[in-house]
Specification:
Blueprint: E1 13-16, H1 26-41, E2 45-48, H2 60-73, E3 79-80, H3 96-108, E4 112-115, H4 119-131, H5 147-155, E5 161-164, E6 171-176, E7 180-185, E8 193-195, H6 203-213, E9 218-222, H7 229-239, E10 245-249, E11 252-253, H8 269-274, H9 279-288, H10 302-308, E12 319-320, H11 323-336, H12 339-352, H13 362-375, H14 390-393, H15 404-408, H16 413-425, H17 432-446, H18 450-462, H19 470-492
Parallel strand pairs: 1-2, 2-3, 9-10, 11-12
Antiparallel strand pairs: 4-5, 5-8, 6-7
The structure holds one RNA strand of 75 nucleotides.
Length: 495
RNA sequence: GGCCCUAUGGUCAAGCGGUUAAGACACCGCCCUUUCAAGGCGGUAACGGGGGUUCGAAUCCCCCUAGGGUCACCA
């Protein structure tokens, strides 16, 4: 710290620092979003850093997927993975030399020490303490080893970890932007590990060094890290660094108020993408989980979210993931996005279901667009669209209920059908609009109520008494298929 | 169990000492309508409990209860 920084004047820098040990979790996505919104709102810098110090569980593939899903959501970053930046590298396993330097410093100052206890020993002691009802802490057997003893063990080649010497009897204060002042007692934390026996830093350690070196001003992360924060604050103090401001946002809970898990529904962003949720719906939904806008409007695109976002309006209570609301938002965006885009997104599902095969000609494309237009108000996610399109593809009409056939036997039906065929003959270009007019004219010409005209035709064409707009259906099917379906249906009831 | 966080309708939540306690989703009803939807309008529904402080508490304090987090050589 050069001491010249004036509070509030420094450039805001935030980071999203996932560990690439699996897909991007919905909670992680929200953390990333809040960081991003805060950075963009305040003209700050967003950093993406990979915390890959768990060699066992980290994978390049997970990292790629996380990056892909962040981009999909519309979250970008100014520094970090892929884009680089002044504090590169942004992958912790590539920063090992840096950590080593700071470890030496702590060791030299006696603020950290080598510990030669085996994992088994430590675990045994932990169990003993637990059974006595005590808070399990490192017992400190190696805490008071002299420098010489440490050297000797090291020379013997014994496996060692580096532990932080936690000062005794100190109040550790965390100033949290969303929670206020939170106090901890340093005696509540044992001498935690800084460097693992494989030479890699632990989370609490690497995180502090990186946040410091990368000049992070605000650490916005999940509440599960709140209890880690005193350890980190102690480290900042040991180094004589000014800690960043913390903002711990509450967790997202499953419907039964327990932690979200795979068993209780989809927890990964990619699962929502694959089901045909739109990124703007997911973002909008996530933003509303734990944050609330000032006004009454709740439907926001990313840009509007940026304008509205305020860390002071982040709620402290954990939030239940409300699937119904996500579905509603997604349905809203499906209905209101451009037809071209929704069609593009819907086609893969239609292909997968076998309704479409191969490349689409421009004519087919336009036809599919009409299909999408007539059903897109139904699905809550695009994968569901296949539940509504069968009527356009399958000419083998099955009657949902036999009673519906009775409607086909109503006395006006032959007249209606005749009028329809005649009108269709005189309609060179069949579109939803012209079809609509045809139907209206039939009602007028025959002096029949809509129900008498629409219902038999709908049933003859679809086998059901409900479904998409009839005039759209007629335009989409075309004259030939309309005629053949009606003829077949009427023949089926002996007309 | 220790430590920490949290507590307004079923859910997300506004509220930051004085309000008829917003709004959204879900649910119910009505309207629109050829059907189902969509849309429009309306409705049901909440301050966990107990003590304080105060002229006055959803709002401030304490206790209880409940839920969550965390106590790793995982992050």
């Amino acid at each position: 710290m050069d001491g010249k920084e004036v509070a509030g004047m420094e450039k805001i820098r935030v980071r999203f620092a996932p560990s690439p040990t699996g897909p991007l979790h919905i909670g992680g996505a929200r953390t990333a979003l809040f960081n991003w919104l805060f950075a963009r709102k305040n003209n700050g810098v967003m950093v993406l850093r990979s915390e890959d110090t768990d060699l066992e569980r980290s994978s390049a593939e997970s990292e790629r997927n996380i990056v892909r899903d962040l981009k999909w959501l519309g979250i970008d970053w100014d520094e970090g993975l892929e884009v680089g930046g002044p504090y590169a590298p942004y992958r912790q396993t590539e920063r090992l030399d840096l950590y080593r330097q700071f470890t030496e410093r702590l060791l030299a100052e006696g603020k950290a020490y080598y510990c030669f206890c085996s994992e088994e020993e430590v675990e045994e002691e932990r169990q003993r303490q637990l059974s006595r009802g005590e808070t399990p802490h490192y017992h400190g057997k190696c805490r008071n080893l002299s420098r010489e003893e440490q050297e000797r063990c090291l020379k013997e080649g014994r496996q060692a970890v580096v532990r932080f010497r936690v000062p005794e009897g100190e109040k550790v204060v965390v100033e949290d932007v969303v929670r206020g002042r939170v106090e901890f007692d340093s005696d509540g934390v044992g001498d935690f590990v800084l460097v693992k026996s494989d030479g890699l830093p632990t989370y609490n350690y690497a995180c502090v060094i990186d946040d410091y070196l990368m000049k992070i001003t605000h650490v916005i992360r999940g509440e599960e890290h709140l209890s880690n924060t005193p350890r980190q604050v102690l480290l900042y103090q040991a180094f004589g660094w000014q800690p960043p401001k913390f903002a711990h946002i509450s967790l997202i809970l499953a419907e039964d108020r327990s932690k979200m898990s795979k068993r209780k529904g989809d927890t990964a962003v990619e699962q929502y993408r694959e089901k045909g949720y739109l990124p703007e719906a997911v973002v909008n939904f996530l933003a509303l989980l734990g944050w609330s806008p000032e006004g009454e409007e709740e439907v926001f695109f990313l840009e509007e979210l940026v304008k509205q976002f305020d860390l002071n309006r982040v709620s402290r209570a954990p939030a239940v993931f409300d699937m119904d609301k996500l579905k509603w938002l997604n349905g809203h965006y499906i209905k209101n996005s451009s037809l071209e885009r929704i069609t593009e997104l819907a086609v893969p599902y239609l292909q997968e279901a076998g309704y479409l095969t191969g490349e689409l000609t421009p004519e087919q494309w336009n036809w599919v667009k009409m299909v999408v237009a007539s059903v897109r108000e139904y699905p809550t996610c695009l994968a569901e669209i296949i539940d509504y399109v069968d009527v356009f593809f399958n000419d083998e009409i099955e009657f949902e209920q036999e009673e519906l056939k009775e409607i086909l036997q109503q006395e006006q039906v032959p007249r209606v059908v005749e009028a329809l065929y005649e009108a269709l003959d005189q309609t060179p270009e069949l579109t939803p609009e012209t079809a609509k007019k045809v139907l209206r004219d039939i009602c007028k010409g025959l002096k029949l109520g809509g129900k008498k005209v629409y219902m038999p035709l709908r049933i003859a064409l679809t086998g059901s008494n409900h479904g998409p707009e009839l005039y759209e259906l007629i335009a989409i099917l075309g004259k030939e298929r309309v005629a053949s379906r009606i003829n077949r249906a009427l023949a089926g009831v002996g007309k």
